[in-house]
Amino acid sequence: MAAKKSFKPQNLRSLLGFLLVVIIVGSGALFYFSLEQVRQYAISVNHRIQDADASAGQIQQLQLLKSKLASSNDLVTKANQLFSTPDAYQTQALTDIRNYASATGLSVASTSFGDPTTNGGVYSITITLSKPVSYSKLLAFLNDVEGNIPKMQVSSLDLSYVESGNADSVNVGDTTIKISVH
Fold it and tell me: For residues 133, 139, 145 and 146, what is the CA-based torsion angle, rounded to 10 degrees?
């Protein structure tokens, strides 16, 4: 029979010392690994906090912008009224001009619209008023046209003196009016 090796206290001390060293080294490695994981998590949390702060700031800016837009909605509506649309400018201009002529006691004899493709992109209407007209009524009509919304501007006016008759009367030929279109 083989002799049994006995487990002596020195062997146990050596084994326990070795296990203690392994546990200490293992604990240190585990601590270092855990510390790195905590650092990475802390960095991730910090980035998310910064993103949340930036998002909160952007949300506040968007809410402020929304309130400004809501408060300036009337201004946007008025700005849009300054211009006609290419589809509706003829109807609107014709209606406005006839209303202004009627309000000042004048009548429109004829109208024609200029072609914006041959006119350099300028939308215009040429009108002829019934002759003769009162100079003061003509001035009131032109003032109304110039103050119109959507914006219209008289670009040419053919005007001549009436030989006989009232000193306030004038002959008005073709009058070209530019129309602001967007």
Answer: 150
Please give the structure tokens belonging to residue 69: 């837009």
List, in sequence order, every residue forming a beta bridge with 112; answer none if it has no partner: 126
Who contacts 126 (Cβ-Cβ below 8 Å, separation ≥6)?
Answer: 111, 112, 113, 114, 174, 175, 176, 177
pLDDT band at 165 (very low <50, low <70, confident <90, very high): low
Residue type, 66: K
Q: How far is CA 10 from CA 74, 143, 146, 153, 161, in A?
A: 96, 119, 115, 114, 136
Question: Residue 123 in contact with residue 181, Cβ under 8 Å?
Answer: yes
178 neighbors 155 (Cβ within 8 angstroms): yes
pTM of the model: 0.55
* pLDDT tens figures, 28-76: 999 999 999 999 999 999 999 998 888 888 888 989 988 888 888 777 7
